[in-house]
Design brief:
331 residues; Dihydrodipicolinate Reductase, domain 2; 6-stranded parallel beta sheet; 12 helices; binds nicotinamide-adenine-dinucleotide; Myo_inos_IolG
């Protein structure tokens, strides 16, 4: 059993703590949050210790692995402290919003022989994983195009927008990672366009956008198109298409049931889409943790690395540069 601490008892920390508690590979020892009430109420709900000082917990001998679900600007510090203490780390995305800080962290991790995994959970969604397996099995021949639609059900609150680092680094970052993973090749050119159509005043206040499209090309000519909106009135819209020389793979939205309703006004009416990421990617968060613990337990490499986080952040920065210059940006 891998003795695990979860740092952060907020939205994502609660997801990870429940998944660790349910895992057969790990034991949830402690949840940590400087906001004592948050740590205590989560710990009571799940049945583990609560603590308020992450560095004290990282130093404990009875902790083997640390899951970092704290605000983004704390990730690098906590990750490096945990690695220094010899603890395996699963760190939430993004590594940081500042690529220079990420590069310095990668440099410090270079000679460390401790597993550090980045939490790009969507790779572990069963449908996305099946897509990647079908590509690897040669079912659609050579990949030519990847199309990713990712739309949130509604604008986040103002405080979130302010701290997010902007839509490309906060939201599209998942899609940049998915694009690299499905293309199987690094994008070399990025062209992006961005608009303020959902909450123009709010996003303009933070020099941000709410509606974006990105087109990318790899050195061999593979293409990817990503489109994001902060608000789809019909719910959390998550679809992907991979088109290849011998066919296509299509990953549609998930719904709570397969029921379809028919009446005199409408036919084929489905349940609403699963709303929002906690529901849609519940399986993915659990599978991600199992992959992490599996790698830690077996000594095999972790499936997603901080370098993957760095590359996705770099693509986000290129997209923003493309919006600002109106030009194709060389990656
Ligand atoms: N993979 C995903 O789909 C996904 C989804 C949501 C959030 N995230 C990422 O997870 C991170 C946290 O986001 P959230 O939405 O859970 O935020 P949140 O604000 O809901 O929770 C963060 C918690 O961390 C606590 N905290 C602050 N500093 C801490 C420290 N030094 N040690 C321990 N706890 C500390 C806060 O008190 C808070 O309770 C962000 O980096 C975000 O980008 C990823």
């Amino acid at each position: 059993m891998i003795r695990t601490a979860v740092l952060g008892a907020g939205r994502i920390g609660q997801v990870h703590a429940s998944a660790v508690a349910a895992s057969r590979l790990a034991q949830l020892v402690v949840v940590v949050d400087p906001f004592e009430e948050a740590a205590k109420s989560l710990a009571e709900r799940i049945g583990c210790e609560a603590a308020t000082d992450p560095l004290e917990v990282i130093a404990r001998d009875d902790i083997d692995a640390v899951i970092i679900g704290t605000p983004t600007d704390t990730h690098v510090h906590l990750m490096l402290k945990a690695v220094e203490a010899g603890k395996a780390v699963l760190c939430e995305k993004p590594v940081d919003l500042d690529i220079a800080k990420v590069d310095e962290a990668l440099r410090q991790l270079e000679d460390k022989d401790v597993p550090v995994m980045l939490a790009f959970n969507r790779r572990f969604d069963p449908s996305a994983a099946a897509m990647r397996q079908a590509i690897d099995a040669g079912e659609i021949g050579d990949v030519h195009q990847v199309v990713i639609t990712s739309r949130d059900p509604g604008m986040p609150p103002e405080g979130y927008v302010q701290a997010s680092g902007g839509i490309f680094r906060d939201m599209t970052i998942h899609d940049f990672d998915m694009a690299r993973w499905l293309l199987g090749e690094e994008p070399t050119e990025v062209l992006a366009t961005a608009s303020r159509l959902v909450s123009p005043d709010l996003v303009e206040k933070y020099d941000d956008y709410d509606t974006v499209m990105v087109v990318m090309r790899t050195a061999s000519g593979k293409q990817c198109h990503i489109n994001n909106s902060r608000k789809a009135v019909y719910g959390y819209d998550q679809r992907m298409e991979v088109f290849g020389s011998n066919g296509m793979l299509l990953n549609d939205n998930l719904r709570p049931s397969t029921l379809r309703r028919y009446n005199q006004d409408q036919t084929e009416v489905h349940d609403p889409l699963l709303n929002f990421f906690l529901e849609r990617y519940d399986d993915a968060f659990r599978a991600e943790l199992e992959a992490f613990f599996g790698a830690v337990g077996s000594g095999k490499p972790v499936p997603v690395t901080p370098y993957d986080g760095r590359q996705a952040l770099h693509l986000a920065n290129c997209a923003l540069e493309s919006v600002r210059t109106g030009k194709v940006v060389k990656v």
